[in-house]
Amino acid sequence: QALQVIIAPIPGQILGSIAGVLFGTLHGTVYSLIGVGVGSTVVFIFARRIGRPAIQRFFDLDRFSRWDERLIDGNGGVALLFGAFLLPTFPDDLLCFVAGLSNIRLRTFIILVLTGRAPTFALAAYAGSNVIDGRIILFITTVSVVILLWSFVHYYRDRFIDLIG
Questions:
Q1: Which end of the chain is more exposed for a tag (fewer CB within 10 A), N or C?
Q2: Backbone angles phi, psi at 60, to 5 degrees
């Protein structure tokens, strides 16, 4: 989980489901949150240390600027970060880099990451644990709900951004 935040090759929810298969819902959620907390902290500190010009080279400037403008003020960015971490489809990993360049304190950032991402990882671990327990119908139902939620948020993401940012 920590590496998926830092280098972002696979969505964290897939790893959260695997954690559910391997460790069950509770432990899978906890282990996923520990990993995502560590990875997000590393990215946040890294961005703060190397600075804006270096970070901008890693990302599409338009995408980066869109989030950077909204997070530049640490107080307004708190609600936006929490909402983006809570709802699926937002670029969580990019937001960790951008947050490191904002005025948001590290402790506040870690709390936002853990509380905002907890429901999604709990749901992913729950889905994964249903597979190992042989509850395939419950797994399919959970995944279907997640896909519907993802689709809804993705479709209305600009409205969500305006609402929370």
A1: C
A2: -60, 125
Q: What are phi and psi of 162, to 5 degrees?
A: -65, -40
Amino acid residing at 103: N
**Total residue length of the chain:** 165
**150's tokens:** 């993802």
CA-based R_g, the chain, Å: 16
Return d(Cα 31, Cα 19) in angstroms, integer.
7
Q: Which residues does 147 contact at the CB level (< 8 Å), separation at least 6?
A: none
The Cα 23–Cα 92 span in angstroms is 24
At which residue do the structure tokens 């090759």 appear? 9
Instruction: Give the CA dihedral 27, 34, 111, 85, nearest 10 degrees.
Output: -80
The pTM (predicted TM-score) of the whole model is 0.83
Examine the pLDDT at 73 and tell me if it is beyond 60: no
Phi and psi for 137 in degrees, rounded to 5? -60, -40
pLDDT at site 128: 92
Distance separating the N- and C-terminal Cα atoms of the chain:
27
